[in-house]
From TrEMBL:
<dbReference type="GO" id="GO:0090730">
    <property type="term" value="C:Las1 complex"/>
</dbReference>
<dbReference type="Pfam" id="PF04031">
    <property type="entry name" value="Las1"/>
</dbReference>
<dbReference type="GO" id="GO:0000470">
    <property type="term" value="P:maturation of LSU-rRNA"/>
</dbReference>
<protein>
    <recommendedName>
        <fullName>Las1-domain-containing protein</fullName>
    </recommendedName>
</protein>
<feature type="region of interest" description="Disordered">
    <location>
        <begin position="340"/>
        <end position="396"/>
    </location>
</feature>
<dbReference type="GO" id="GO:0030687">
    <property type="term" value="C:preribosome, large subunit precursor"/>
</dbReference>
<dbReference type="GO" id="GO:0000460">
    <property type="term" value="P:maturation of 5.8S rRNA"/>
</dbReference>
<feature type="compositionally biased region" description="Basic residues">
    <location>
        <begin position="342"/>
        <end position="357"/>
    </location>
</feature>
<dbReference type="GO" id="GO:0004519">
    <property type="term" value="F:endonuclease activity"/>
</dbReference>
<dbReference type="InterPro" id="IPR007174">
    <property type="entry name" value="Las1"/>
</dbReference>
Length: 396
């Protein structure tokens, strides 16, 4: 006996029409229909049986449309983003909803949801709302994830325009071709510094074009870099420096990040998953595990990546490394915490140094008498008598 499934839309074509309004094809040059799509989903919700993925798409899209500082306060924009993002993540990973007693991180891994989403959801729920920059990037990545994991699989009946579902195999092959060509050019001779940079910029441009043409591109690129041994030389020995590799790939990845900022998040997650979950990384004598450690340390602490470091899922990386018995993971956790403590100490010292500068003269530090004299010249002085009456009590 066939099972009846009740949906809030009457026909599949209505669902596909809403999909094309949320995700218009590249060739579309008509009016922005996202607000209409959100209103349609709101009406569907009143009918019941609305899939969480559809509702989350509408909430995240509506938050993006709400992002107008001329009409709305920054506080309300951050709150709207936070609420939409938290509902999206909680509806997928909340163990109370899905019954089985598993952690949210485990549920996220089962679903292929970036673990950094769970960490950001925790931060938005229990701490201060994240910054607008972080929330905007997270919302965009969430919509990309929803396309890959829900909308792309909706059957297209051919009656509306839709984005073509990307073939993961062809995307990986395209990456492999570009990376092999770049590797061959770099190894063929010893180019000048200018020619070397030209090769790197050209490779970055080709990789960006693949990411532009494919919804799978940004997600697949970090894995391709590791699979093709681009970031880590398989012949590398323990203790060998990675400075030359950093010099080459920093340029390439940063060029890609200018067009697709989320690539640095996927890269960090790919590196930490290989470090923490790959059994081959357990040994303290593993040159590959050491290279993963050095890459993560470089991305998260080096001055070259300072402008991008706010995008990295630092809290998730720390949590994953702290819970792992892996030698290199624990060492990374210790180094990151030590770096954070140094930053906190320097921030605490900064106000004190600033105050000391204000009371110093050109020839040395001013004496307390000099400071008192200057304050008196500007109308400041000690209180002669102190009246400790409560506020609102008149003197007699």
């Amino acid at each position: 006996m066939s099972k009846l499934i009740f949906t809030p839309w009457k026909t599949k074509s209505q669902l596909l029409e809403v999909r094309s309004e949320f995700y218009p094809p590249p060739s579309y040059d008509g009016p922005d229909m996202r607000a209409h799509a959100c209103a349609t989903v709101e009406a569907w919700k009143l009918r019941g049986n609305l899939p969480h993925h559809v509702e989350a798409t509408a909430l995240l899209t509506d938050a993006i449309l709400h992002d107008d500082a001329q009409r709305n306060s920054i506080f309300s924009i951050r709150a709207t983003y936070s609420a939409a993002f938290c509902r999206f993540v909680t509806g997928l990973v909340d163990t109370k909803i899905h019954g089985q007693r598993r952690t949210m991180f485990q549920r996220a891994m089962d679903l292929g949801l970036p673990a950094s989403f769970v960490e950001l959801r925790h931060e938005a729920t229990h701490r201060e709302p994240p910054s607008l920059v972080v929330l905007r990037k997270a919302s965009q990545r969430s919509l990309e994830w929803l396309w890959d994991n829900h909308w792309a699989a909706v059957e297209d009946l051919g009656d509306v325009s839709s984005i073509q579902h990307d073939d993961k195999g062809s995307v990986k092959k395209a990456f492999r071709d570009v990376l092999r060509q770049f590797s061959t050019e770099a190894a063929s001779d010893t180019p000048s510094k200018k020619r070397k940079r030209d090769h790197e910029v050209s490779a970055a441009a080709q990789l960006v074009s693949i990411c532009d043409a494919s919804s799978e591109g940004v997600r697949s690129l970090p894995a391709a870099l590791l699979e093709q041994s681009m970031l880590i030389d398989p012949a590398r020995e323990l203790g060998e420096s990675l400075d030359d590799t950093f010099d080459t790939w920093d340029v390439v990845v940063q060029k890609i990040a200018e067009s697709h900022p989320s690539v640095v998040v996927y890269l960090a997650e790919e590196l930490v998953h290989s470090l923490v979950f790959d059994p081959a990384s357990d040994s303290s004598e593993s040159a590959y595990a050491e290279a993963l450690f050095l890459w993560l340390l470089h991305l998260l602490t080096s001055p070259e990546w300072e402008s991008q470091q706010s995008f990295f899922p630092r809290s998730y990386i720390l949590a994953a490394c702290s819970e792992s018995p892996n030698h290199w993971a624990k060492l990374l956790s210790d180094r990151l915490r030590e770096k954070s403590q140094k930053k906190a100490t320097s921030r605490a010292k900064a106000p004190a140094q600033k105050r000391s500068k204000t009371v110093s003269s050109q020839n040395g530090t001013a004496s307390p008498v000099d400071v008192d004299q200057k304050l008196r010249e500007h109308g400041w002085g000690p209180v002669e008598t102190w009246d400790s009456r409560p506020l609102g009590i008149a003197s007699t």
